UniProtKB/TrEMBL annotation:
This is GNAT family N-acetyltransferase. GO terms for molecular function: acyltransferase activity. Residues 1-60 are annotated as: Disordered. The lineage of its organism: Bacteria, Bacillati, Actinomycetota, Actinomycetes, Kitasatosporales. InterPro entries: Acyl_CoA_acyltransferase, GNAT_dom, Ribosomal_N-acetyltransferase.
Length: 235
């Protein structure tokens, strides 16, 4: 899993920024203040989250209120609630608020939150987000997570490859980045398979639970060629 992005709501956040969730990121920022100076520049434009194929077995689509069972399963995971705004204690009310936050991220122009869905039964098994907070500086972040029932099927790799290709080639984002905890070798291997290159270690980069954690940063430019024999976000 790549760390997600900070929650735009006021108050404490689960914080991240691989931005699996901008709250969830590629990056979301605070919501515009309704009392702000009327001369302030306009905020980001609303975004439309598309539906996309991620190969023959999986698809990406906007979040729906029917995805509450996915939120319930994610809430039971020991790690996902630490790095996203998935509620640590599930309730329908908290899960519905989570889904509405995904809609808000697109509506306020902060990013593209996707549910990852298995094609054969339309069951949602995870989430991936492209977060645009830093797009004015020519970069965006991707974050993702997968529940236990979706792991080991190639779904994370397929989803990351699809969003990466779309961001680089359709949206023409100059740089994409992921933030992954050093112990998470499975997620690191997936990122490298898609073409991301490890660029360094950010010490104490992100709050995870009750402690600051190091994050390895992985980057991919839309001008990059193949890395170590791997194609860059090929179809």
């Amino acid at each position: 899993m790549a760390a997600p992005e900070p929650d735009p709501r006021p108050g404490p956040t689960s914080g991240p920024t691989s931005d699996s969730e901008p709250d969830t990121g590629p990056g979301s920022g605070p919501r515009p203040d309704t009392d702000a100076d009327s001369d302030a520049p306009p905020g980001p434009e609303p975004l439309t989250v598309p539906s996309m194929s991620a190969g023959p077995d999986f698809g990406l689509r906007p979040w729906e209120m029917s995805d509450l069972p996915l939120v319930r399963e994610a809430a039971q995971d020991p790690y996902i609630p630490l790095i996203t705004t998935i509620p640590a204690r599930y309730s329908d009310k908290a899960a519905e608020a989570f889904v509405r936050r995904q809609w808000d991220r697109a509506a306020t122009g902060h990013g593209y939150p996707f549910a990852i869905v298995r094609s054969r039964d339309r069951r949602p098994v995870g989430a991936i987000g492209l977060w645009l907070r830093d797009l004015p500086q020519g970069r965006a972040s991707i974050g993702y997570w997968m529940v236990a029932s979706g792991r080991g099927q190639g779904v994370t790799r397929a989803a990351l490859r699809t969003v990466t290709h779309w961001a680089l080639h359709d949206l023409r984002v100059p740089r994409l980045q992921l933030f992954i905890e050093p112990w998470n070798t499975a997620s690191a291997h997936i990122a490298e398979d898609v073409g991301y290159r490890r660029e360094g270690l950010l010490r104490g980069w992100q709050q995870v639970g009750d402690e600051r954690r190091d994050m390895a940063v992985y980057g991919l430019l839309n001008s990059d060629g193949p890395a170590d024999g791997r194609a860059v976000a090929e179809d």
